[in-house]
Amino acid sequence: MGSEGQLKLPVFDLTKEDLKPGTNSWLSTCTSVRQAFEKYGCFVVLYDKASDELHSDVFGSLKELFDLPTETKLRNIYEGKPLKGYVGQHPKIPLHESMGIDDGSTLEGIQSFVENMWPNGNEKFCKCLFDYANVAEGLDKMVVRMMFESYGLMKYYEEYIGSTNYLLRLLSHKAPEQVEPQLGFVSHTDKSFTTVLHQNHVNGLVVETKDGDWIDVDFSAPNSFVVMAGDALMAWSNNRVKSPNHKVMMNGNETRYSLGLFAFYRGILQVPAELIDEGHPLQYKPFDHLALLNFTYSANMKDYCGI
């Protein structure tokens, strides 16, 4: 039996002025971030690098995007790259629609997507999405650095960041027609290393704890984000961090628009030697992160590269 409403995810303010590498504030936050990853697999971040204007422009643009005809949205295809294109019109999740932008933190990746949706161009959409992706990427790099630093693994950080690219997914969940909450998206774990989520004022994300309770996540404030561990981080950390099950449950009468920036490592990930000891024997073989996506979405990490 769950205990929604009683449990809350940790919240970290990562825009404090004294939060600079090497300071006491930085070091204590690094520890807290790592502990939150280990306990919950995710947490809420207050991060004011996205202005209220950008927040408003992004979600206005998402409404414009999802209001396009279905045949236009179906042009969002990436040949040979599962899970990166359009998802929608599915009878089991009728409230859900989403689209993907490969290389989603680059201007080229976003421009390519925009030209596909609007052959005559849409400069405002392009600019605000690029600005947003840069904010989310900056947050991702900051949090990952904190985690690497807390584990004493900074020597691996630059190589990891230098080989990471991002998938940006744009999501819409319609309001249910009935009064009872309705499934917006099925329970799953992410295949990414990390995921940064941002939404409009409509909540819907629900995260499962290690004890099987479900937490309703409120990150409706314009400067709130959720950072979540994916399966690749779970493997890299040798199961110190668990990628949390999560789903979307919709109620009320408004559409939920959200964005997810998913980090993928181009190359072979392996458990650092420093994270293997008597209490944590090696759990995963080295694995090709991008190939994990092709291994099927329903696969778990143990099937893919478990010892």
Structure keywords:
alpha+beta; 4-stranded antiparallel sheet; disordered N terminus; 307 residues; Jelly Rolls; single chain
Characterize this entry briefly.
The chain has 307 residues and is of the alpha+beta class. Helix content is 32%, strand content 23%.
Helix tally equals: 9
CATH superfamily: B-lactam Antibiotic, Isopenicillin N Synthase, Chain
Shape: globular
Calculate the terminal CA-CA distance, rounded to whole Å. 33 Å
Q: Catalogue the unreliable spans.
A: 1-5
Largest β-sheet summary: 8 strands, mixed
Strand content: 15-25%
Number of distinct beta strands:
14
Estimate the helix proportion, in percent.
25-40%
Integer average pLDDT: 92
How many structural domains?
A: 1
CATH topology: Jelly Rolls
Query: Reading side by side through the largest sheet, how are the strands ordered?
Result: 1-2-10-7-12-5-4-3
Describe the overall structure.
The protein has helices spanning 24-40, 52-66, 70-73, 107-117, 123-150, 157-162, 231-236, 289-294, 301-305, and strands at residues 11-13, 42-46, 87-88, 96-101, 164-173, 182-188, 194-199, 205-208, 214-216, 224-229, 246-250, 256-265, 268-269, 287-288. The protein is built from 9 helices and 14 strands. Helix content is 32%, strand content 23%. The chain has an 8-stranded mixed beta sheet with strand order 1-2-10-7-12-5-4-3. The protein has a 4-stranded antiparallel beta sheet with strand order 6-11-8-9, with no helix packed on it. A two-stranded antiparallel ribbon has the order 13-14. It has a single domain (21-305), classed as Jelly Rolls (Sandwich). It is an alpha+beta fold. The chain starts with 10 loop residues before the first strand and ends with a helix. Strand 8 (205-208) and strand 9 form a beta hairpin. It is globular. Helix 1 (24-40) crosses helix 5 (123-150).
